[in-house]
Amino acid sequence: MTENTADNTTRTPTATTPEPTARQRLGYVLGRTLPTELHPWVIADTTGPGATRRYATRCLIPLIPILAGLLLIPGPWIIRTGMVLLLFLPFVYFLLALKNIYLRHRLVSHGLDPRLLNATKQRRLDQEQASYESRYRSAP
């Protein structure tokens, strides 16, 4: 029982970040900016774990009714499936190719530093470089 309490205390964050209301979140998804007090949430949304998944989900959900409508057009299944794939595959390709540009725009529109997008990657590269130098570079 003491192990569970120790695990619970290590998992709880020390400072909780405020989350947007449902109305603010809907506005955020539609492209509006959030108030300054929600900037930590915006940073976590655009740079945190699962940011790519959330971005792709937000972009693909509006496409589903269009693709479903194309499947209802009369004709052979191969033609209907081909129409859906001709729209879906390039859409996903460009969606993922333009991910960094869109997320950078999201940060800039909130008045945040766009370099935050690459902060995690840069931190990891710095750690790898420091590890390499400590192992293979001799001290002067």
TrEMBL record:
<keyword id="KW-1133">Transmembrane helix</keyword>
<protein>
    <recommendedName>
        <fullName>DUF5313 domain-containing protein</fullName>
    </recommendedName>
</protein>
<feature type="region of interest" description="Disordered">
    <location>
        <begin position="1"/>
        <end position="22"/>
    </location>
</feature>
<dbReference type="InterPro" id="IPR035197">
    <property type="entry name" value="DUF5313"/>
</dbReference>
<keyword id="KW-0812">Transmembrane</keyword>
<feature type="transmembrane region" description="Helical">
    <location>
        <begin position="59"/>
        <end position="79"/>
    </location>
</feature>
<keyword id="KW-0472">Membrane</keyword>
<dbReference type="Pfam" id="PF17240">
    <property type="entry name" value="DUF5313"/>
</dbReference>
<feature type="transmembrane region" description="Helical">
    <location>
        <begin position="85"/>
        <end position="102"/>
    </location>
</feature>
